[in-house]
Specification:
Blueprint (H helix, E strand, L loop, with lengths): L1 H19 L2 E12 L6 H12 L8 E7 L2 E4 L5 E3 L14 E5 L3 E10 L4
Parallel strand pairs: 1-2
Antiparallel strand pairs: 1-6, 3-4, 3-5
Length: 117
């Protein structure tokens, strides 16, 4: 249930931000979802809905921006899009490091400001 803790963190951050700005509700959250995370769009939306129920984030629109995976080769130094093969697409080395597309995080929040006094 690793994905639940990630999504809980996104919901909590949105709630904290709304509170800091005196917002009545969060209108939209934008999330970056890497190709190599273990979180699917469906799981993100489902758990977001469940975890935000009864909060200022409950009816927020969730937008998702996909982030492609990338690798850096330790031998040739090349930075390239990740492929399904665990080798550098330039030199063929297996000494590569995943350097992108492995995260799921909150990119931005749109809030509805609280009504004045």
């Amino acid at each position: 249930m690793h994905e639940v803790s990630i999504i809980r963190g996104i919901v909590n951050t949105a709630l904290e931000t709304a509170e800091q700005h005196g917002a009545d509700r969060v209108a939209r959250v934008s999330v970056v979802l890497g190709d190599f995370t273990h979180v699917t769009e469906e799981a993100l939306r489902f758990h977001f809905e469940v975890l935000s129920k009864g909060t200022a984030v409950e009816h927020a629109e969730v937008t998702i921006r996909r982030e492609n995976g990338s690798v850096t080769c330790w031998d040739c130094g090349g930075q390239n899009p990740a492929t399904t093969e665990p080798v550098c697409p330039v030199c063929g080395s297996v000494r590569i490091e995943l350097t992108g597309g492995d995260q799921c995080y909150l990119e931005s929040i749109d809030i509805d400001e609280a009504d004045g006094p």
